[in-house]
UniProtKB/TrEMBL annotation:
GO terms for cellular component: plasma membrane. One of its GO terms (molecular function) is signaling receptor activity. It is found in: Cell membrane. Its main location: membrane. It holds the Pfam family RBP_receptor. It is a multi-pass membrane protein. This is Stimulated by retinoic acid gene 6 protein-like. The keyword tRNA-binding does not apply. InterPro entries: STRA6-like. GO terms for biological process: vitamin A import into cell. The keyword Transmembrane applies.
């Protein structure tokens, strides 16, 4: 804590009342920007640019080629931010909604990130200083081909080996570690930032809940005073008691569903990483069947814009998804409370069980009749199997007159059944749509309308940009071309030097290429059938030998 004589600027001072907002304290003079929609858009744009300029020095110092100067400036800038944040937290550690250490709960992610940056810049300074003093060699220029990409290409060229031992349930159902794959820094940064934003959003939501809870407590006090004034004999007394019960149930369900809603969004973040690896690997293999037809050849400009949008949209979808999932889970919790728990509390368990039994019996009869229709169709209205090895009967009608009678008498029942099926379709679509709203890696639109899902469009565009720029086979090919170009330049530079060409046997480039081709075809027998056929007995004999070797 600071001494009493030390004072901070006005925008660091603690608010004196709950009603005093940030705008009233002069932090954001929004009134000068007007109230129109256009001015609000400009305010958001200018605010985003302001935040970007405030944090741009961190990235500039991290990516600077002058490592020594960049590390010093970055460390000083991070230290200033860290000191200002600590000073602000120490000046106002407590809040008005959560009480003690409210400000600490809100700012500890920022302090953790700033501490990480301080350590990073310190490490950069020590390493750059050792290079400057000549204690270490300066790092060579980074190669185009990274180690995990080279390992991936080597695994493709190697004969596949069967798995040693059985895969665990976690590996088959959830995730399996791949040493030849590395997530890009953009994905890791997006997921980490999404975690931080989700945490802050939950804290802000809890602030709002505490504020609403205090207002509802005042409202409940007024209702209790009214009930006491009429001695619980007024006409509105039962309604008031039901309203108080509704408020109590709503508050309890809202607090309880915070944990499952947050865990759902956290699982989505990890699942997005797993889907990214699965989708990008399919694109590397040339498989685009997991994408809708409209997204299998996107425009280049749209893909570039999509990768710029992805990180921000992913975070926004997670935040909105948490709020929507929380509301849906709260509604489900209230339905359970009013359907199962409250009747037991009000000594109405028998009526509740009776209604529950009737509902279950009705659903069982409907499902049973649907299953019975399928059984009758399979037993009486289909011709027998053509072979005993067939899994099902052929789609050929049998007993057509009986089938027409069956169809006629069930027509009126199926009309009534269709009414319920339509409502169930609507209900299931709403539940799945709200449950998967945070999943930007898959569309929630119906087939043919996927283009209206802007989030999924951003996901697909980002995948294509990464596919075209990080494909290990393509990057390996470019690496070979660059290395060959450098080697030729080196040979031209030393062509006037004496080189003993007579030492060692000479191998022609054509023979070396044919030998490498033979080795590749032996290790990958399926490529033999894809080769362009050549006329001549020797070519057919060579292909037959390779196929014989592959069978062996």
């Amino acid at each position: 804590m600071l001494p009493e004589s030390t004072s901070l600027p006005s925008f660091w001072s603690c608010p004196s009342s709950k009603d005093e907002s940030i705008v009233d304290r002069g932090m954001i003079p929004l009134t000068s920007w007007g109230t129109t929609l256009e001015s609000s858009s400009f305010v958001l744009l200018i605010g985003g640019i302001e935040v970007g300029l405030a944090y741009f020095p961190f990235f500039a110092c991290l990516s600077s080629e002058f490592r020594l100067v960049g590390s010093i400036l970055g460390f000083c800038y991070s230290l200033i931010w860290f000191a200002v944040t600590v000073l602000q937290v120490s000046q106002c550690p407590h809040g008005q909604f959560l009480g003690r250490y409210e400000t600490v709960m809100f700012y500890w992610p920022s302090l953790l990130c700033l501490a990480f940056l301080l350590g990073r810049f310190l490490h950069m300074f020590v390493k750059a200083l050792r290079v400057h003093l000549g204690w270490e060699r300066q790092a060579e220029e980074k190669s185009v081909l990274e180690a995990h990409q080279a390992a991936h290409v080597k695994r493709l060229l190697r004969r596949p080996h069967p798995r040693e031992g059985e895969a665990t349930w976690f590996q088959t159902r959830i995730y399996e570690w791949d040493p030849c794959f590395q997530f890009p820094s953009r994905m890791i940064g997006t997921i980490v930032l999404a975690f931080i934003c989700l945490y802050l959003f939950i804290v802000i939501e809890f602030y709002v809940f505490v504020f609403v809870q205090d207002e509802l407590a005042v409202f409940e006090g007024k209702l209790e005073s009214y009930v006491a004034s009429v001695n619980q004999t007024g006409n509105l007394t039962p309604v008031i008691l039901q309203v108080k019960e509704l408020i109590t149930v709503t508050k309890g369900v809202w607090v309880v569903t915070i944990l499952p809603a947050s865990l759902t969004c956290v699982s989505y973040l990890f699942h997005i990483l797993a889907c990214y690896r699965k989708h990008i690997k399919k694109l590397w293999a040339g498989d685009k069947h997991f994408l809708p037809l409209k997204f299998r050849n996107p425009a280049s400009s749209e893909s570039v814009v999509a990768i710029a949008r992805y990180s921000g949209w992913q975070i926004a979808y997670i935040l909105w998804g948490y709020l929507i999932i929380h509301v849906v889970q709260s509604l489900c919790g209230m339905a359970i409370m009013y359907g199962l728990v409250l009747p037991v509390i009000h000594n109405q368990a028998l009526e509740m069980l009776q209604g529950l039994g009737i509902g279950i019996l009705t659903i069982s009869i409907v499902v049973g009749l649907m299953v019975l229709q399928v059984r009758i169709a399979a037993g009486f209205f289909l011709q027998p199997k053509l072979s005993a090895a067939d899994k099902q009967k052929p789609l050929a009608l049998n007993n057509r007159k009986a089938f027409h009678n069956f169809n006629y008498f069930l027509f009126f029942y199926n009309v009534l059944l269709g009414l319920g099926a339509c409502l169930s379709r609507l209900f299931i679509s709403c539940v799945l749509g709200t449950w998967l709203i945070a999943r930007i890696d898959r569309t929630i639109m119906q087939s043919g309308y996927e283009g209206a899902d802007m989030g999924f469009s951003a996901w697909v565009g980002m995948l294509y940009v990464d596919h075209y720029h990080t494909n290990p086979v393509l990057v390996s090919f470019c690496h070979i071309l660059i290395a060959d170009h450098r080697e030729r330049k080196l040979q031209q530079a030393i062509k006037y030097c004496y080189i003993d060409q007579s030492a060692g046997p000479r191998v022609s480039a054509r023979s070396r290429t044919r030998w490498l081709l033979l080795q590749t075809l032996v290790n990958n027998p399926r490529l033999v059938m894809l080769r362009k056929p050549k006329s001549g007995h020797s070519s057919r004999e060579f292909t037959q030998i390779l196929l014989t070797c592959s069978d062996c």
